[in-house]
């Protein structure tokens, strides 16, 4: 009994040291209990007890679909106005970075062609990072005419919202839930199949014509979308709320 107590505490101490050294900072996700059991040559019961010690200290926490993760307050993105995630991170004192994965002109995917009314578009796929940690995979499409003057360095340096040669009138953003595909899991450093939020944003010019379509895939444990609900005749009115398959069962 005494030896088991010493063993789980030793494992907790070692994991605490590894966490302090930033070993899991990039993903925020610890190895699975079975992997830790193999690493430390200890039973799952002993590993779970070690993790519970760290949980009590507020160091780690279990999350559905991810296993055990480093405890951290999720980032908050305000959806009450059209703004870049970089601007909101900067306002919160968080260092942001964008890494361009793909850049080029291509035939528009069917959904994008339907929205933009264009056959050829500029497609840019990137990863957004906050303090060095990947927080979103973003793919943006814009009409060939509007993207013709943009370079790979341009879209790495600043957002489309800041560079398009048109005045913007607003956007519609739709958010749903999904499981991370293999490609996104690799880019975001999360387990494949883990929960992600998927947002489609359609940005329009002042005449109401769509000029940008973008898809944002965000690990569910790293981001919260925040919307203020204005009072309407004494009642909160969540405009834009839509049911998916609202048919009675």
Query: Would you list the SSEs in sequence order as H and E?
Result: HHHEEEHEHEEHHHEHEEEEE
Question: What proportion of the residues form beta strands (DSSP E)?
Answer: 25-35%
| Sheet/helix structural class | alpha+beta
Radius of gyration: 22 Å
Please state how the strands of the largest beta sheet are arranged side by side: 4-5-6-9-8-7
Could you tell me the mean pLDDT?
A: 82
Strand element count: 12
How far apart are the first and last residues' alpha carbons, in Å? 53 Å
- Secondary-structure arrangement, i.e. CATH architecture of the largest domain: 3-Layer(aba) Sandwich
**CATH class annotation of the largest domain:** Alpha Beta
Q: How many domain units? A: 2
Largest sheet: 6 strands, antiparallel
Helix content: 25-40%
CATH topology of the largest domain: Chorismate lyase
- The number of helical segments is 9
Low-pLDDT residue intervals, each spanning 5 or more residues: none
Give the name of the CATH superfamily of the largest domain.
Answer: Chorismate lyase-like
Q: Which term fits the overall shape?
A: elongated
How would you describe the overall organization of this protein?
With 249 residues, this protein is α+β, with helices and mostly antiparallel strands. The protein has nine helices and twelve strands. It has helices spanning 2-20, 33-40, 44-56, 85-91, 110-116, 144-147, 152-157, 160-163, 182-188, and strands at residues 60-63, 67-70, 75-78, 96-107, 120-130, 133-143, 168-179, 195-205, 210-219, 223-226, 231-232, 235-236. The strands form four sheets. A six-stranded antiparallel β-sheet has the order 4-5-6-9-8-7. Strands 1-2 form a two-stranded antiparallel sheet. A hairpin with a 2-residue loop joins β11 (231-232) and β12. α1 crosses α3. The longest helix has 19 residues, at 2-20. The chain is elongated and about 70 Å long.
